[in-house]
Amino acid sequence: MSNDKVENSKVKDCADKDGAVDNQAAESHTATHAESPISAFSLVKHDNGIAHLVMDVADESMNTLKAEFAEQITQVLAQIKADTSIIGIVLCSGKPDSFVAGADINMLNACQTKEEVVALSRQGQMIFAQLEQLTIPIVAAINGPCLGGGLELAMACHGRICSDNAKTALGLPEVQLGLLPGSGGTQRLPKLVGLQKSLDMMLTGKQLRAKQALKSGLVDDVVPNSILISAAENLVLSFSTKGKHYHKSQRKIGLVEKLLANKAGRNIVYQQAEKSVLSKTQGNYPAPLKIIDCVRTGLEASSTQGYQVEAEHFADLVMSSESQQLRHLFFATTEMKKEQGVADVKAEAILKAGVLGGGLMGGGIAFVTATKANVPVRIKDINHKGINSALKYSYDLLNKKVKRRFILKSEMQKQLAMITGTVNFTGFKSVDIVVEAVFEDLALKQEMVVAVEEHTQEQTIFASNTSSLPIHKIAAQAKRPENVIGLHYFSPVDKMPLVEIIPHENTSDKTISTTVAFAKKQGKTPIVVKDKAGFYVNRILAPYMNEAAILLLAGEPIDKIDNALVKFGFPVGPMQLLDEVGIDVGAKIGPILQADLGERFAAPAAFDKLIDDGRLGKKVNKGLYLYKQPKKGLVAKLTGLIKPLPSKPVDESIYLLLGITPKGKLSAETIAKRCLYMMLNEAARCVDEGIVRNARDGDIGAIFGIGFPPFLGGPLRYIDSVGAKSVVAQLSQWAEQYGERYSPCQALITMAENDQSYY
Ligand SMILES: C[C@H](O)CC(=O)SCCNC(=O)CCNC(=O)[C@H](O)C(C)(C)COP(=O)(O)OP(=O)(O)OC[C@H]1O[C@@H](n2cnc3c(N)ncnc32)[C@H](O)[C@@H]1OP(=O)(O)O
Q1: Could you tell me the distance, in angstroms and rounded to a whole number, from the CA of residue 100 to the centre of ligand 1?
Q2: In ligand 1, which atom is closest to the CA atom of 205?
Q3: Best mutation site among 152, 334, 335, 524 for ligand 1, i.e. most ligand atoms within 8 A of its Cβ?
Q4: Is the distance from CB of 219 to CB of 142 less than 8 angstroms?
Q5: Which pathway does it operate in (predicted)?
Q6: Yes or no: is domain 353-528 CATH 3.40.50.720?
Q7: In angstroms, what is the span from residue 427 Cα to ligand 1's centroid?
Q8: Distance, CA 101 to ligand 1 centroid (Å)?
Q9: Three-class SS of residue 631?
Q10: Element (H, E) at 18
Q11: At what angle do helices 537-553 and 574-581 cross, to 10 degrees?
Q12: In what order do the strands lie in the sheet with 377-380?
């Protein structure tokens, strides 16, 4: 290995990018650069005896850990050990706004066998152990994302300082990829932050901001980025003088943690964690239980066994279909961040927005516009009550953040000041986009287009948040139809990640790209879909919901249907979803779909009885489930202690109303499959008709818009994994048994005949 002296410009390079290194670079004087130019690691030695180990993967925007770095880092470590003039190391990133985003997921995708992955994991564990065993102190200086293997690397250091940069986030998000931390994370995190906190972090994948990381004991200090490196050097020096390579954690050990310090206490934590995981995942995700097992083995048996189990479990998970689908999903969403709407058509800047209607949707749209997109927003409603309700929507959400200390009150006030209201169109002259969220009525929306055109500029975009009305009809009376587009949000707007963007045939390319860019600024993942009844999400949802209704009318109990779909992996069952959305809302969309797309969209007529009975769902506390439960008496409470009472019981009177006896003859698997296959068939039609631009958008739309089980990769990936042939055979059998609505679409039949797949 070369031990070339590098010119000061090399030192300066690293300093410039970091911004923080400037002070040191100024006083630093000689430096050695101990790597070939293509190495991801360079060692820059300073006169104060501290060397900076800088990670900078060439030609990539983010640092990720790759197998081929093992040799490079081993060489650097050997050099450090050989150079007795080095008194300590600061490990930092050469990227301006990121530390390390974890192991390279592409590398994991390329693994063919479990043994290969075990070897990878063991290699990572071994290298990090070598870092930890250095006899001189090593401190990680973290600015930007420090995730997965990146945090495992930082945890192997003797200390960690992070910047207060808003981009700084520390976490082990492997579980979201169906994985576990496979380079020692399951062993080191519990020691740093305690058992409960570590399980919480690893089982949810949540990322800590700088202050939370400090409070939890994950980092030793938080400082502005401008002094990050010098603070890390100071920590190195303090370790050197104390002769100790670790800091006493600053985290406060609470009473609960003290009570759980013995084995019996810890067993309670493991059991509770397992119970909670199983109820959340329904057993569909293998990673969480394996994470608990790694932690338990490390703490209760030995570290050596803990590391061994970690590598084995990690490898099993990398090879699992669940993780493979979740990794596809990661790359699909990453790819979508780059979508422009129309390739090579640049978006116009949106500097001010208008929202029509201060209801639940309007309030949510105003909130994400102001707080996520950072764009001032003017709400127009017909009365002050509407405006106030929209303002309250934002106030309540921001106030919650203040109470949880995520933001300061002054920040809340600043964000609230970006949302203003009007009962006429004052202030609309300067808006660049108007999102309408008024009542779902075609004539009213057409009127809104005319009014908005009158009160805004030539180029102002009119985006309709309709869930079902054709956009070309909304644009029918527009003077500038090229500015009219659909922008369909999902409720609750602040939480649901998807939006559908629906150009009609005369929408301009500029309008499409600008609306896509605007939705992305609001933190949404947009899919561009065709202007046809139901667009994509409601179109694939409707047959699934109808099938659930048909099953109910055939005597399957409400909770049995819901439990079957939840067990399959949906976040809520179709019956509960109907209550949440509102049975009246579903009833409005149904006929629009039926008129345009045919009889298979006909909702069972018996459901009209629900509307006649005023069962509009949760919003009126009357639907398929009971919302106002009678107070539990002592006996019920005691019974509840033995067997948990269902949180929300079915309103049994519904069966009488519908004239059915809920006997329930079908298995949960059949119930789930029948609903699901209706969705698969429709999703296949949508790809075929070009409703979505490609299978990827179809999968993302279903996962982010409906909650299609992510571990199955989306409806189209699911068809691929089951095989089009098998889907067609099942649908054909049911078509004979139950009727036409099951007939497989031509696209699926062709795929089956030609042995084709979507991916
Ligand atoms: C053994 C270990 O325990 C196993 C692991 O570490 S598994 C990996 C765990 N890490 C993660 O899950 C983090 C994944 N990354 C992210 O969440 C986000 O990329 C981020 C928050 C770091 C940054 O987000 P953002 O700024 O929006 O940038 P984003 O567009 O996502 O990523 C930028 C580029 O880095 C790539 N990238 C980010 N993390 C990556 C990773 N872990 N592996 C491979 N590529 C990655 C992206 O694919 C993208 O590449 P491209 O520009 O060529 O398309």
Answers
A1: 9
A2: 12
A3: 334
A4: yes
A5: Lipid metabolism; fatty acid beta-oxidation
A6: yes
A7: 41
A8: 5
A9: coil
A10: helix 8-18
A11: 120
A12: 419-422, 377-380, 353-356, 433-436, 461-464, 484-489, 498-503, 525-528
CATH superfamily of the 8-242+252-318 domain:
2-enoyl-CoA Hydratase; Chain A, domain 1 (3.90.226.10)
Q: Is the CB of 120 under 6 A from ligand 1?
A: no
The one-letter amino acid code at 114 reads K
State the average pLDDT for the chain.
90
Give yes or no for residue 101 CB within 6 A of ligand 1. yes
**Any ligand 1 atom below 6 A from CB of 322:** no
Kindly report the backbone phi and psi dihedral angles of residue 28, in degrees, each rounded to the nearest multiple of 5, phi listed first: -90, 160
Model pLDDT for residues 549-572, shown as the tens digit of each residue? 999 999 999 999 999 999 999 999
Ligand 1 lined by 61 (C-beta under 6 Å): yes
The CATH class, in words, for 532-560+573-666 is mainly alpha
Catalytic residue check, 500: yes
Q: Number of helices and strands (H, E) in the chain?
A: 33, 17
Helix (H) or strand (E) holding 528: strand 525-528
Q: Measured from the CB, is residue 334 less than 6 Å from ligand 1? A: yes
CA of 331 to the centre of ligand 1 (A): 9
**Please, is 452 exposed, middle or buried when counting C-beta atoms within 10 Å of its C-beta (0-12, 13-18, 19+)?**
buried
Catalytic residue selected from 152, 500, 556, 682: 500
Q: Which two tokens stand for residue 674?
A: 């029948």
pLDDT tens figures, 457-492: 999 999 999 998 999 999 999 999 999 999 999 989
Q: Is 181 in the pocket of ligand 1 (CB under 6 A)?
A: yes
Burial 154-189 (b: 16+ CB within 10 A, else e): bbbbbbbbbbebeebbbbbbbbbbbbbbbbbbbbbb
Mutate to test the pocket of ligand 1, among 62, 121, 186, 187 (most ligand atoms within 8 A of CB): 62
Question: Based on C-alpha coordinates, what's the Rg of the chain?
Answer: 29
Cα of 282 to ligand 1 centre, how many Å? 28
Q: How many C-beta neighbours within 10 Å does residue 110 have? A: 10
Confidence of residue 447 (pLDDT cuts 50, 70, 90): very high
Find residue 626's DSSP bridge partners.
622
Beta carbon of 80 within 6 Å of any ligand 1 atom:
no
Q: How far is the CA of 34 from the centre of ligand 1 (A)?
A: 28
Please enumerate in sequence order all residues whose Cβ is within 8 A of that of 656, keeping only pairs 6 or more positions apart, or say none: none
pLDDT tens across 138-183, in order?
999 999 999 999 999 999 999 999 999 999 999 999 999 999 999 9
* Whole-number pLDDT of residue 37: 47
The CB of 173 under 6 Å from ligand 1? The reply is yes
Q: Closest Cα to atom 41, ligand 1: which residue?
A: 104
Say if 353-528 and 532-560+573-666 have the same CATH topology: no
| Cβ-based burial of 59 (10 A; exposed 0-12, middle 13-18, buried ≥19) | exposed
Average pLDDT over residues 204-226: 96
Q: Where are the domains of the chain?
A: 8-242+252-318, 353-528, 532-560+573-666
653 CB neighbour count, 10 Å cutoff: 11
182 Cβ inside 6 Å of ligand 1: yes
Nearest CA to 219 out of 281, 157, 298, 275 is that of 157
CB atoms within 10 A of CB 381: 22
Cα(400)–Cα(407) distance, integer angstroms: 9
- How remote is the CA of residue 76 from the centroid of ligand 1, in Å? 25
Contact 437, 427 (CB under 8 A): no
Q: What is the DSSP string of 123-178?
A: HHHHHHHHHHT-SS-EEEEE-SEEETHHHHHHHHSSEEEEE--TT-EEE-GGGGGT
The two three-digit tokens of residue 251, written as one number: 């985290």
Indicate if the pLDDT at residue 259 is higher than 80: no
| Edge-first strand listing for the sheet containing 169-171 | 145-147, 169-171, 207-209
**Atom 46, ligand 1: residue with shortest CA distance:** 104
Taken as a whole, the chain contains a residue count of 759
Q: In angstroms, how far is CA 324 from the centroid of its own chain?
A: 17
